[in-house]
Specification:
The chain has one domain: Alpha-Beta Complex (Maf protein), CATH 3.90.950. It has five helices and eight strands, in the order E-H-E-H-E-E-H-E-E-E-E-H-H. Strands 1, 2, 3, 4, 5, 6, 7 and 8 form an eight-stranded mixed sheet that branches. Helix 1 crosses helix 5 and helix 4 crosses helix 5. The structure holds inosine 5'-triphosphate (ITT).
Amino acid sequence: MKLIFATGNQGKMKEIRMILAGLSLEIQSMKEANIDIEIEENGKTFEENAKIKALAIWNYLKEQGEDNCIVMADDSGLEVDAMDKQPGVHSARFMGEDTSYVIKNQAILDKLEGLTGQERSARFVCTIATVYPNGRVTSIRETIEGEIAKESSGENGFGYDPIFYVPAYGCTTAELSLEQKNEISHRGKALSQARVEIERFLQEGEG
Ligand code: ITT
């Protein structure tokens, strides 16, 4: 059986592969599965968008006669409290999809200029939607709380990691190794639960 992960984001895919490693399933990204379809993420919540992505690919595969796949999708983003929880579900599109994260991150640092401590609170949110071969859909949401750093720092990860400061670790998520980030992150926590769900499915079937 195959697990197709409905994402075009290579940064996510790297984390996903590490967390789901060792499952007795072949894990493929959309690219590896040769799926190149545009999905309109027009949901208002992370949950809605994760389901839209996973179901779009599940339906596409069904049309192609592939009916023995599990499809998973991740919808995630950064909520900055001082910005009314923006960019939120618009995190990838914030200031334009093609704008570099150096520019997006600097814009957030500028907006929070002069704020200190709890005024800089923020969180990453991740929702994982899973569609099983019989069409059953599940969804798991997890978060990691932190603050917007005073300045950009670190080379690891992707997206907003260089400005997401984790007080307990005294650094940004871009300064953590992949292993460390996966242990504490929104995606790491949500996917670890999804992994348990998949293991149960593989043992028990859909019954
Ligand atoms: P797919 O929809 O193809 O999966 P995407 O990048 O468009 O890729 P989303 O719509 O879920 O994915 O947007 C998530 C954005 O939130 C992502 O592009 C980053 O900007 C940000 N983000 C999510 N998780 C992150 C993380 O762990 N570290 C840094 N930024 C993150």
